[in-house]
Design brief:
279 residues; 6-stranded mixed β-sheet; 10 helices; Rossmann fold; alpha/beta; disordered C terminus; 12 strands; 4-stranded antiparallel β-sheet; binds magnesium ion; binds adenosine-5'-diphosphate
């Protein structure tokens, strides 16, 4: 149900104001297991935050909890969008506020064409302002930028798409729906080098154009050659244990996560700035 809510979620256009997503002391449980435990993070328009962490540490859980997946039980803490709690909001309401998640494993919906899916979503968002001709033009030009073949827009949603095409399709949805805060959950997995470049460059272009806030979950530097992080956070056992600049990515690639295992949590952009100044 969550997936369908997410897929059919609709997002209204942003404005020039600064939008803030604030995650405060979040503790989350699924099936009797606490996954997130004291997670804190603040993301503002124009900022790019990267989260790295070992498998199973709760990165995808975090992204799904932000979008309102009801499988996850919030035990403690809050998630605020522009100072308003979103915890009681359904996924579609969160999406209308401007939150957008590219899924780690985008699903297939047979019988619903890519074009129809996008039209319903964008029309729902724009309501009376929706213009079919403009929509068609935008889909065509963005598809071209993403290097899609002409027929793909008329195929079933992700039907027969390769892993890379599914990820690029998520980026097409992002472009069309114009979110204010974008969460990319391992968008680089399954991408060949050319697709990685296309995805990375298009995400950066979108971010610069719309001034959105970006939360990038990744294991590798290679995506960050195209999406430049302002802050990098190491996540272990459901919380951030260290925050720093892009140099942390190289450090992790060289040294792994083991030394961060028992470190105390560092949270919030102020502490991030302190860290950067002391680096
Ligand atoms: P990551 O994305 O960091 O690799 P996940 O957030 O996917 O980690 O998973 C964190 C932990 O929570 C894992 O142990 C995973 O098995 C568990 N988990 C996540 N979602 C569920 C779920 N719906 N049911 C049971 N366990 C889950
Ligand atoms: Mg994951």
């Amino acid at each position: 149900m969550f997936i369908f809510n997410l897929i059919f979620s609709i997002i209204k256009y942003g404005d020039d104001s600064v939008n803030t997503l604030k995650i405060i002391d979040l503790k989350v449980q699924v099936e009797d297991k606490v996954i997130l435990d004291g997670f804190n993070l603040e993301i503002k328009s124009g900022e790019t935050h990267v989260i790295m962490g070992p498998n199973g540490t709760g990165k995808s859980t975090l992204s799904k909890v932000i979008m309102g997946d009801t499988k996850y039980k919030i035990l403690q803490g809050d998630i605020l969008f522009n100072d308003e709690s979103i915890l009681s909001m359904t996924t579609d309401k969160r999406a209308r506020l401007g939150l957008f998640l590219t899924m780690q494993s985008p699903i297939t919906v047979e019988g619903v064409s890519n074009a129809e899916f996008l039209r319903v979503a964008v029309q729902g968002k724009e309501q009376k302002n929706f213009k079919l001709l403009q929509f068609v033009k935008d889909v065509e030009s963005t598809s071209l930028k993403l290097n899609f073949s002409k027929d793909f827009i008329h195929r079933g949603l992700n039907e027969g798409f390769s892993g890379g095409e599914r990820k690029k399709n998520e980026i097409l949805q992002m472009y069309m729906l114009k979110p204010k805060i974008v969460i990319l959950d391992e968008i680089d997995s399954g991408l060949d080098v050319d697709s990685l470049k296309i995805v990375g460059e298009n995400v950066t272009e979108y971010k610069n154009k719309e001034n959105c806030g970006l939360l990038v979950i990744t294991h590798y530097q290679r995506l960050l050659d195209y999406i430049k992080p302002d802050f990098v956070h190491i996540m272990m056992n459901g919380k951030i244990v260290k925050s720093g600049s892009s140099s942390l990515v190289k450090y992790i690639e060289d040294n792994g996560y083991s030394e961060f295992e028992e470190k105390k949590q560092i949270t919030g952009t102020c502490i991030v700035k302190d860290f950067l100044e002391n680096e």
